[in-house]
Design brief:
Layout lengths: L2 E6 L5 H13 L5 H18 L2 H4 L1 E7 L3 E7 L22 H8 L2 E7 L2 E9 L9
Helix pairs in contact: 1-2, 2-4
Amino acid sequence: MPTHRRTFPGHAEDVTHARHWTRTILGNHPCADDASLVVTELTTNAITHTASAEHGFTLCLTETDGTVTITVTDAGGTTSAPHVEHPTPDTTHGRGLTLVTACATRVEVHGDHQGHTVTAELRTPVREPQPC
């Protein structure tokens, strides 16, 4: 079960760098597309809502044949924990964690004002045997 870890400076372009790094690590893994979306959302949240724009964030990917676990740790600086919001149709923000929870089998948030860690677990769908 290899784990890959990288710290990014927290610039806006690091969302793209994190997504590309994720695609490179996961290659043809069945969860690669969803993992790229989750990484994009979680790293954007870290840069937008915490001190990560100034102090960076850490991204960890752990992969197995059937699971990818994504962990993003931000630099803190906020007293509110990441949470799912329920925006109105006209609201331009607040859908990131909703997308993450739609893709992930499990999402957990830990931490405090010094930094939050969001973990999303993606599992490969079980394929039903096809009749002959």
